[in-house]
């Protein structure tokens, strides 16, 4: 959903240091209500510090933070029921079942057991409701952490690497849950190192490094503006480097296990030339991705 004129979260020139380390350096970002917003960046980029300032767990040294029109610090009791937080370290009441745990969390908000059942259903854990939280699988654990974050129906949800350490099937299943949450229209601040997920899910992303925002926009816009273009992978033995260099519209040539990889922003034109040259059988088209944008920003060689 697009940002509205009445943002859910506003960060204005926010900075935070730990001693000599400037963890967050003059960050200005506005997140719209209903937006699925990705906070991306390498380890130590400042994501956690930034998010903890939004959650009211840390106070900025400089700048202002507003969440739903309120300041999160000093600890704002009006705001707490309106935000939900899932973290890597989400704690559970270990002796309890999944349902008992959620009923307890609901009670902390003064809410009835029925909301726990609703949350269980939302995250697809109804059938696992009676499993002890110590015995749930990795995927179920992440679902339970998300259920704990949304049990009180908050307006703003923070999700910190919810698909980390999951096997591919569990990750895919959880991706489906994230899409359902997104469709629910809540404001979601999402941290991940899985850039394919961020590309698929996020309305906009901020890419941070060394405490600063290097890029801020929709994945589509960032990809378009990056100029990375499409890679066309031509199987080995079909095209010499010399022939490749003569094709109009090719911006760069790489080699990958004998295959020739052409970079272009004029895909149709280059494909037409390839078709005329030796046919298009098994020529693979790889559009630019958010990961390309990220690697470009980090100054790393691209795959
Ligand atoms: N409590 C702290 N005391 C001192 N330095 C800290 C503290 N917390 C974070 N830092 C430092 O601040 C910088 C930003 O850390 P932060 O945890 O916010 O980054 P991050 O992007 O969340 O990293 P990760 O992806 O590893 O969680 C890093 O250099 C980190 O070492």
Automatic annotation (TrEMBL):
This is ABC-2 type transport system ATP-binding protein. It is found in: Cell membrane. GO terms for molecular function: ATP binding. It comes from the Bacteria. Pfam families: ABC_tran. Its main location: membrane. Residues 9-235 form the ABC transporter domain. CDD domains: ABC_DR_subfamily_A. Gene3D superfamilies: P-loop containing nucleotide triphosphate hydrolases.
């Amino acid at each position: 959903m697009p940002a509205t004129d009445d943002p859910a979260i506003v960060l204005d020139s926010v900075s935070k240091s730990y001693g000599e380390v400037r963890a967050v350096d003059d960050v200005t970002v506005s997140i719209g209500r209903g937006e699925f917003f990705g906070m991306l960046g390498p380890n130590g980029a400042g994501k956690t510090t930034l998010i903890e300032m939004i959650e009211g767990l840390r106070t900025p040294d400089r700048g202002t933070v507003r969440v739903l029109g309120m300041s999160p610090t000093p600890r704002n009791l009006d705001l707490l029921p309106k935000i939900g937080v899932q973290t890597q370290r989400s704690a559970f009441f270990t002796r309890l079942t999944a349902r008992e745990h959620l009923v307890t969390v609901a009670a902390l908000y003064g809410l009835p057991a029925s909301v726990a059942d609703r949350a269980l259903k939302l995250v697809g854990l109804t059938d696992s409701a009676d499993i002890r939280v110590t015995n749930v699988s990795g995927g179920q654990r992440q679902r339970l952490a998300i259920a704990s974050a949304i049990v009180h129906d908050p307006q703003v949800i923070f999700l910190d690497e919810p698909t980390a350490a999951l096997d591919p099937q569990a990750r895919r299943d959880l991706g489906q849950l994230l899409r359902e949450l997104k469709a629910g229209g809540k404001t979601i601040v999402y941290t991940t190192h899985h850039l394919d997920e961020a590309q698929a899910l996020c309305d906009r992303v901020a890419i941070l490094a060394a405490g600063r925002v290097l890029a801020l926009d929709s994945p589509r816009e960032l990809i378009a503006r990056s100029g990375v273009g499409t890679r066309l992978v031509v199987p080995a033995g079909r095209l010499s480097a010399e022939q490749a260099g003569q094709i109009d519209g090719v911006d760069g040539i790489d080699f990958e296990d004998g295959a020739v990889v052409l970079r272009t922003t004029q895909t149709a034109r280059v494909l037409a030339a390839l078709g005329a040259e030796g046919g298009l059988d098994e020529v693979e088209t790889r559009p630019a991705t958010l990961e390309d944008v990220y690697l470009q920003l980090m100054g790393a060689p691209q795959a």
